[in-house]
Design a protein that fits this description.
Largest sheet: 7 strands, mixed
Helix content: 25-40%
Distance between the termini: 15 Å
Oligomer: single chain
Structural class: alpha/beta
Number of strands: 18
């Protein structure tokens, strides 16, 4: 018997219920969760921005301990500490063959297959984004677990599974920020905080954080922001002023809204790069005039999971954590139990706080 947060239908409120998990089959691994971060992608599953069969167990950013493995599993063993990888690459599709595992055509295939049942009515459940991390335990593919290097706290390591891999990758893999370049970060949530820390690690400066909430300033500056601008205060104009009238070398959008993507684009200098990390809905339309595309010669690019290869990048992130350059606990503004997930969604919708972390007993 396992407690979990279940989304019964798109648009319905999440429910905390008991579920039954099977023993791990061939190539599968059972993990006892230590913690799971509450990510905007989980909210996007509840409102249909991200599409997946329902009912499902929410949660995808997690870390824990392997309790059992199925036949043929060799990568991990019971007792190993692991980070959940919600987008495991297959290694065989066209994009994997190009060396772009973050675009793997089969990365989310696990979410299409039921993996557990509700105890009260026996109905099938799908794992949210293939992982179902808002549960005391989960069963995932062997490809979906990454060994966690010794010394990294297991609770905080949950953030490495999504927010930090995404934010660090946006800076170092997608934008390729260089020392001394200026960076503007739109949205100071979990991913935005990881982007700010990663820009600081890259030696960027100035680093400008933009958010709707003035309460985020202290959080942003602690993560590495040298300046803070409210989203309502003409951020493009303010960023140009901070950067000597030129604009930011890099703008990273972590919200997924048309107006913030447009503002990030307008904040970027001629020849600079705007990187969009936020996941927006189909109704969000961004427009540009033909002359500005020519004149500004900016690059606008999407970024999936930080353009990361988690198996390659996780050890690098762990090294930064152990060296004190990357502060995981500083990103967490609330530690909750499973019962606190619905309220954490409300906080996220209101644009408050950094990362809420579900911590399991």
């Amino acid at each position: 018997m396992v407690r979990a947060v279940v989304l019964p239908a798109v648009g319905a409120p999440p429910e905390i219920v008991e579920i039954d998990l099977p023993a791990p089959g061939p190539g599968r691994v059972r993990v006892r969760l230590a913690a799971a971060g509450v990510c905007h992608s989980d909210l996007s599953l509840t409102n249909g921005v991200l599409s997946q069969p329902v009912p499902l167990v929410l949660g995808h950013e997690g870390a824990g301990t392997v309790t059992a493995v199925g036949e043929g599993v060799t990568a991990v063993a019971p007792g190993d500490r692991v980070v959940i990888n919600w987008a495991p690459s297959c290694g065989e599709c066209h994009f994997c063959g190009l060396g772009e595992p973050w675009l793997c055509a089969n990365a989310l295939a696990g979410g299409a297959v039921p993996y557990a049942r509700r105890r009260d009515d026996g109905s099938d459940l799908h794992p949210g984004l293939g992982t179902g991390a808002f549960a005391e335990e989960t069963v995932v593919s062997e490809r979906a677990v990454l060994p966690l290097p010794d010394g990294v706290p297991l609770d905080d390591a949950a953030l490495l599974g999504c927010a930090v891999l995404t934010g660090y990758g946006a800076v170092h893999n997608a934008a390729r920020v260089r020392e001394g370049e200026s960076v503007a970060v739109f949205g100071v949530g979990g991913v935005g905080l990881a982007v700010l820390q990663s820009a600081r690690i890259a030696g960027a400066g100035p680093i400008v954080a933009v958010d709707v909430s003035p309460e985020k300033e202290e959080l942003a500056r602690a993560a590495g922001a040298t300046d803070f601008v409210l989203a309502a205060d003409e951020p493009a104009r303010r960023i140009r002023k901070i950067t000597g009238g030129i604009g930011a070398d890099h703008a990273v959008e972590c919200v997924g809204r048309a107006e913030t993507i447009r503002a990030a684009w307008s904040s970027t200098r001629r020849g600079g790069r705007t990187t969009v990390v936020g996941i927006g809905g189909k109704e969000q339309k961004v427009s540009f005039s033909a002359i500005e595309i020519f004149h500004f010669a900016r690059t606008l690019s999407g970024c999936v999971y930080g353009n990361s290869d988690p198996a390659r990048d996780l050890p690098v992130l762990a090294e930064h954590v152990l060296a004190g350059r990357l502060d995981l606990s500083g990103m967490v503004t609330e530690r909750i139990g499973l019962d606190g997930v619905p309220a954490a969604f409300d906080t996220m919708r209101a644009g408050r706080g950094g990362r809420a972390l579900v911590v399991f007993p």
